[in-house]
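Bench log, entry 3. Co-assembly request; chain sequences pasted below exactly as received.
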Amino acid sequence: MDDNSTAPPLRTRDRIVEHADRLFYEGGYDHTSFATIAAEVGISRGNFHHHFKAKDDILAAVIERRRNSTAAMLRSWERVAATPTDRLGCFIDMVAENRQDIMRFGCPVGSLCSELAKQEHSLLGASGTIFEQFRTWLREQFEQLDVAQEPDDLAMHLLAMSQGVAVLANVYKDPEFVAREVARMHRWLDDTVER
Amino acid sequence: MDDNSTAPPLRTRDRIVEHADRLFYEGGYDHTSFATIAAEVGISRGNFHHHFKAKDDILAAVIERRRNSTAAMLRSWERVAATPTDRLGCFIDMVAENRQDIMRFGCPVGSLCSELAKQEHSLLGASGTIFEQFRTWLREQFEQLDVAQEPDDLAMHLLAMSQGVAVLANVYKDPEFVAREVARMHRWLDDTVER
DNA sequence: GTCTATATACCGATAGAC
DNA sequence: GTCTATCGGTATATAGAC
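Structure output for the full assembly:
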């Protein structure tokens, strides 16, 4: 199954989504035009509408792609980290590992949701499900730790801290600030799970 | 001084800035057009360029206006709160008081900076000075408290927490989440300043 | 200072040849 | 599936009458 390595060049539709994902992150959804995406992919603007009827359809595909990559990342953390505490640490370390992109473009999830919220975009709810993936996964880790506070509150708080760091990192572009806040989140986690 | 109450109708330029301030907050800078602002103010698009040469000039004026209102707010906190701890509490309470707007449009400062950062806008630095106003003021309060940690780190952390709450409040639109995080920030402040 | 009219450019989206 | 050509709409910005 799926062993036909003769499907190599990656279908045009997938290449569009791949490039749109990056361009939406780097420049924002509204600010990224068909012309920009088409130029990056190397196709004409006209060919575009053969794969996607409207721009919103591309955004929906990008969100779906990000949901898949998020799910894969969460699964990888479950593989490399044995305990729930270590898995929560993986989430915190993600901020440190992606600090270069975060300082340049912010958080991919948070910045997209913020833009869609301002424009009252119909896909705000869909983009919010990516936050929901993290929230649910974080809550599950806290639930396994039998902590004193509500697991969902702790999940939301950890999510909020990561978003706050992302916004200020994007503004100040200070890697030392990110390092300090990441260390602070690790200390918070230790204080929260120890009992 | 300044007793000439004969300058009542507020000059057109000021009315433009006033409406642009609100519209940029509610809908974002790039997404807000001249036509929208002109309609709100009640003038024609043509009249617009008599007061502002380019759109960036309006943004610069809006940022200046927000800097003034921020400075006024910080001064008011210094009046109503006697101790540095109470003043820091005023900052935290601001999140609770503005929760309705925050849930609808996010943080005025954070959301503007995030948008400008994505577009590599030349006025990102100018908008960042509003964050700097809060940062400096918060740091000064912590300095007066002789806390164990670096006052600037504490200022940035408090700023980051408020931004994180704003982003998630904007996505989930959950007033109870805001209330919980505000209470959590107050507890954090108490734990940080007590010694 | 305010208006109408318009220039110029880009946007998303469509039509149709190949 | 990919292309060229183009439509209709809107954006910022300008010119000039009043």
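Residues 33-35, 45-46, 48-49, 53-55 of chain B lie near DNA strand D (CB under 10 Å from a C1'). Residues 1-5 of chain B have pLDDT under 50 and may be disordered.
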